[in-house]
Amino acid sequence: MKFVTGASQKTTAWQDLAGGGLNGPVTVHGAVHALRDMGGVAFLTLRLARGTVQCVCAPEVLPGGLREGCWVELSGAVRPEPRAPGGWEIAAEGVEMLSAPAAPLPVPLGRGPLRLNLDTQLALRPAVLRHPRERAVFKLQEGLVRAFRDHLAGQGFTEIHTPKIVRAGAEGGSNIFRLDYFGKKAYLAQSPQFYKQTMVGAFERVFEVGPVFRAEKHATPRHLNEYTGLDLEMGHIRSFYDIMEMETGYLRRAAALLAAEYRPELELLEVDLPDVSKIPCLRFQQAKQMAAEKYGCPIRDPYDLEPEEEARIGRYVKEELGSDLVFITHYPSKKRPFYAMDDPEDPQYTLSFDLLFRGMEVTTGGQRIHDWAAQTAKMEARGMDPADFDSYLMIHKHGMPPHGGLGIGLERLTMQLCGLDNIRRASLFPRDRTRMDP
Questions:
Q1: For residues 273 and 266, is the Cβ–Cβ distance under 8 A?
Q2: Parallel/antiparallel/unpaired status of strands 165-166 and 184-188
Q3: What is the pLDDT of residues 145-202, one digit of tens each?
Q4: Residue 199, exposed/middle/buried by CB under 10 A (0-12, 13-18, 19+)?
Q5: Contact between 361 and 331 (Cβ < 8 Å)
Q6: How far is C-alpha 130 from the geometric centre of its chain's CA atoms?
Q7: Cβ-proximal residues to 311 (8 Å cutoff; 6+ apart), any chain
Q8: What is the C-alpha to C-alpha distance for residues 375 and 337, in angstroms, rounded to an integer?
Q9: What residues contact residue 343 under an 8 Å CB cut-off, 6+ apart?
Q10: Residue 19 burial (CB < 10 Å; 0-12/13-18/19+)?
Q11: Range in 6-20, 27-41, 59-73, 111-125 with the lowest mean pLDDT
Q12: Are strands 52-57 and 42-47 parallel, antiparallel or unpaired?
């Protein structure tokens, strides 16, 4: 009888090769990324789970029919080679073909940058994602999520998982996907807002990494109809600035993690990590006025920031304050959801903020209303029926501490970090108004 103990076999990973000693025997698994036959010797570039490695092979070592896209097991010795990427290579002693493709790849992955338009790239996504530059984007995205989880766990947060099929929208408006739920009206969640507030009453500090759905008929480089939200909510705050402090702590953790463990991806994509040691804060009206005066652009919408306005504010902050990031605080109440707490000193504005990163909003957050009477009064003032939100208002009715939170758009954060020109490049399989596959 055989028993499984959980002790898995260790295979040589890319980081083991990159950090290990030279001249040692290794066995690696991967795909043939490129193959060049130079007559008496062949140069095989092997694509590993992370990164690539140059292998030098005698012709007799290579199995028949070997070509790009084949998956192999290769054994040999690591040795120094200044002309090879990374300064080392593997002298192959044996190559076993594990599988061969039924058709060649639709794009040449081993010949430099992909030169395809975005629509073609997205249509060929399963193949294109094997390209080193494409993979690097999502390794950095992995690091952003790792840092979020690690930082918040260290700050006493509990990770939660909330429903994505809901009875009512959290943000209001028409940008909500409707569906039939066994004969009842239901919706895809616009955010985990109601549930994460609810869980503050149970755990005090909570976070979630999960999908968010917005039924917006847009076609811009900064919007998706499904994206990943990094959400947190925390109780017993003294001010909504506590939430901004928490996000700044996360960003510092993320920058340190990426610098320490994701250097190859940063170098491949030529990413310049932002200085997150301190982030300036500007009030909404102040930021609008400063950018309008410096760049001679009139203010068209006094209640919100247009994308071009965000870009100008980002430029202003970079030029005047030397920062890639800026918190914009005290947004007008007219443009914030019903659960946003109004500023007691001027109820036209809210105790809320956005974080702009290199001229684009990547975070929205703020302090929430925690008093039952205040929350129902604000709903009624907006023409809403509190009875439609009974389950949500239960938390206010039975007592809540002062609390607040934020939501970060993971794809936007990735896009701005990597300097991408379209948010679809920061989504593995993007969903917009015309795309449902692959």
A1: yes
A2: antiparallel
A3: 999 999 999 999 999 999 999 987 766 656 899 999 999 999 999 999 999 999 999 9
A4: buried
A5: no
A6: 19
A7: 359, 360
A8: 11
A9: 330, 349, 350, 351
A10: exposed
A11: 6-20
A12: antiparallel
Cα separation, 431 vs 226, whole angstroms: 6
User: Cα–Cα distance between 385 and 389 in angstroms, integer?
Assistant: 8
Q: What is the distance of C-alpha 278 from the center of its chain?
A: 21
Three-state DSSP at 125 gives: helix
Residue 273 corresponds to which tokens in the numbers above? 């990590």
pTM summary value = 0.95
Q: CB-side exposure of 71: number of CA atoms within 13 Å?
A: 9
> Which residues does 121 contact at the CB level (< 8 Å), separation at least 6?
114, 128, 425
Tokens of 417: 């970090």
Q: What is the DSSP string of 268-294?
A: HHT------S---EEEHHHHHHHHHHH
Per residue in 252-265, pLDDT (tens digit) is 999 999 999 999 99
